[in-house]
Structure to design on (323 residues):
């Protein structure tokens, strides 16, 4: 998520004694499963819908980004490392109070680490706020590969309408061809999910994406092994007693549910469409929206996500402090 940050050599100034004072006041610590309640107290009440805010994502990818958090004067602050842990970056502050001052805390911490402040996952709402409070002090760099695909839950569950007719066709063919069962994911099914993912990896990885898929496997393994503690829900498709697809996700905020992982065996035509619909139909109706995350610039994945007719392509950018 930090591709843009390291490409722009922008600088700013901050008084050294202020940097030292703020650094001494704010104590960041690694994000762990035990921190769920404290972190989600801020994120679930937020109006922001980006997938980066799902606690399950923060926690299961902590190994890669070294993600840390602090709660300081009513604000949740999150920092992490990008570019092979050579550069520090931050999410926007969350909380009630002086937002401008909270951004200053992050700037002080970033400068102490030798970098101008870089905020990632900045949505249009946050961009407008930064422009209002800081005028032209930030440079904004759009990162299209990390835009989030957000859908109406009801549309994914029902597949109504002309635009989703091809998806209905895939689902109907699968249902006619296979006698399948859908099972809610439980800890008892974790071993089956992990075994299925190993098979999926052997069939789908290439030399180019081996590192990315290995990192995804590590994140997914952690999530599945801490399924209940992370507040995840999910589902599995089985044909003849054998898994052919599984998925899981968690709430991002009060109206938006995030789908974090979806794996299916394409030898069973329509398996992706069926697991998508079956899971969406079981997401509580209190969630209006489903965030199916980014496409990472992968052409096939981008085409697949666009084909589901997102109600919103959520723009995200890097915001780098210039002065």
């Amino acid at each position: 998520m930090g591709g843009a940050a390291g490409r722009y050599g922008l600088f700013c100034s901050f008084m050294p004694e202020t940097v030292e004072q703020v650094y001494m006041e704010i104590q960041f610590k690694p994000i762990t499963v035990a921190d769920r309640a404290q972190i989600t107290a801020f994120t679930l009440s937020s109006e922001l819908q980006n997938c980066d805010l799902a606690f399950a994502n923060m926690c299961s990818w902590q190994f890669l980004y070294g993600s840390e958090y602090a709660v300081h004067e009513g604000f949740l602050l999150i920092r992490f490392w990008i570019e092979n842990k050579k550069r520090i970056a931050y999410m926007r502050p969350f909380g009630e109070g002086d937002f401008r001052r909270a951004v200053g805390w992050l700037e002080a911490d970033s400068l102490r680490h030798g970098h101008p402040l870089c905020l990632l996952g900045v949505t249009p709402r946050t961009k407008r706020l930064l422009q209002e409070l800081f005028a032209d002090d930030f440079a904004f760099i759009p990162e299209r590969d990390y835009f989030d695909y957000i859908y109406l839950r009801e549309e994914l569950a029902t597949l109504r309408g002309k635009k989703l007719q091809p998806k209905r066709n895939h689902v109907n063919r699968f249902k006619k061809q296979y006698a399948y069962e859908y099972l809610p994911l439980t800890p008892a099914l974790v071993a089956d999910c992990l075994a299925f993912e190993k098979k999926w990896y052997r069939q789908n990885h290439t030399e180019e994406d081996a590192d990315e898929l290995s990192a995804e496997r590590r994140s997914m393994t952690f999530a599945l092994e801490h399924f209940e503690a992370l507040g995840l829900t999910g589902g599995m498709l089985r044909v003849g007693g054998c898994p052919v697809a599984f998925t899981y996700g968690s709430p991002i905020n009060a109206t938006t549910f995030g789908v974090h992982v979806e794996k299916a065996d394409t030898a069973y035509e329509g398996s992706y469409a069926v697991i998508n619909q079956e899971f969406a139909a079981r997401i509580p109706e209190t969630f209006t929206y489903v965030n199916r995350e980014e496409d990472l610039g992968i052409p096939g994945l981008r085409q697949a996500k666009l084909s589901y007719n997102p109600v919103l392509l959520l723009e995200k950018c890097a915001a780098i402090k210039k002065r």
Remarks:
- The two ends are 23 Å apart (CA to CA).
